[in-house]
Amino acid sequence: MGPVAVDDLSTAAELLRAATDVTLLAHVNPDADALGSALALGTALRRRGATVRVSFGMPAEIPRSLRDLDPEGLFVPAAELPMSAGLLVALDTGSQSRLGRLADRVPATVAAGGHVLVVDHHASNTGFGTHHVVDERAEATVVLVLRLLDELGTELDPHLARCLYAGLVMDTSMFRRARPETHRMAARLLDAGVDAEDLTRKLADSHPFSWCRMLSAVLGRARLEPDSAGGFGLVYTTVRLADMDGVGLEEVESVVDIVRTTVEAEVAAVLKEVAPGRWSGSLRAAGKVDVCAAALRLGGGGHRLAAGFTAPGSEDDIVAALRAALAEPVLI
Ligand code: MN
């Protein structure tokens, strides 16, 4: 692990046990791991009697595929989130800027005498909290949340288990990147009452019809560059604003999982135009190239095999910047 000083679990659990007012934040455009982590920990703390809110910088609502994870209504839209002097917990968030419009809550909480607990598994975590449970070896942030729940003595129930399973199954690409411990955790969650088939279908196998039309346009313009990424090969495509008509950002996130199956390329990239002239890139590597290093060169971050960045420019600018960032790749 990098420069982040990591607190032991019991110190973090003490902080959680003592808290009466807790705001839990996921990163912008939360995925199942970020939101599942926040909702599982939030629910456990609410059951202990704390006042709990779960939020994220954007979008204004919980993404469609994750809505079922919040039956108790812990979510508060960013625009309505009150300032609080209590405990702030940032989950699955590698840097303060990944909190988006809620990034200012970090200094505000510290200035008001509160604590900021960062629970994360990103290799690039910057250590922006006052307390950290950061372990890049964890396959998902929900793994760290379960360690905290165990430390708190929280008994799993079907809802907690569902939130944790959501993060585990999605962050391991459906258990493709699994260790024995991954399946031991999954077994515990299934024992606690998760309906894996129902949950996984909602998370990963449900799309509006507009998704098919978007895919057709976006995959049609995919390009393969065998000489890029230091000769390891790059496959990429772009998702333009017009492609996203009637398609949520979460639907677009699935494109990279198709593009990255290209055997001729070590590195896959999907460049999404999130606003006119503003791009968000998702990078994936098959196993040889460290795409986190490339993402860091572009102002982003992530994991060695899955990383991302955002940058301004034209479509050609972004493709050129990506090629340059991968020109001399850091090898794993
Ligand atoms: Mn994660």
Provide a descriptive summary of the structure in words.
The protein is 36% helix and 18% strand. It is α/β, with parallel strands linked by helices and 332 residues long. It folds into two domains: 8-203, inorganic pyrophosphatase (n-terminal core) (Alpha-Beta Complex), CATH 3.90.1640; 209-325, Roll (Diaminopimelate Epimerase, Chain A, domain 1), CATH 3.10.310.30. The strands form two sheets. Strands 6-7-8-9-11-10 form a six-stranded mixed sheet, sandwiched between helices. The protein has a five-stranded parallel sheet with strand order 2-1-3-4-5. The radius of gyration is 19 Å and the shape is globular. Manganese (II) ion (MN) is lined by residues 33, 92, 121, 140-141, 171.
Ligand roster: manganese (II) ion
- How far the N terminus sits from the C terminus, by CA atoms, comes to 15 Å
- Would you tell me the structural class of the helices and strands? alpha/beta
CATH class of the largest domain: Alpha Beta
CATH-defined fold name of the largest domain: inorganic pyrophosphatase (n-terminal core)
Question: Residue ranges: pLDDT <50 for 5 or more in a row?
Answer: none
Annotation field: number of helices: 12
**Number of β-strand runs:** 11
- Write down the Rg: 19 Å
What's the architecture of the largest domain in CATH terms?
A: Alpha-Beta Complex
Compute the number of structural domains. 2
What would the principal axes of the Cα set say about the shape?
Answer: globular
Estimated share of beta-strand residues:
15-25%
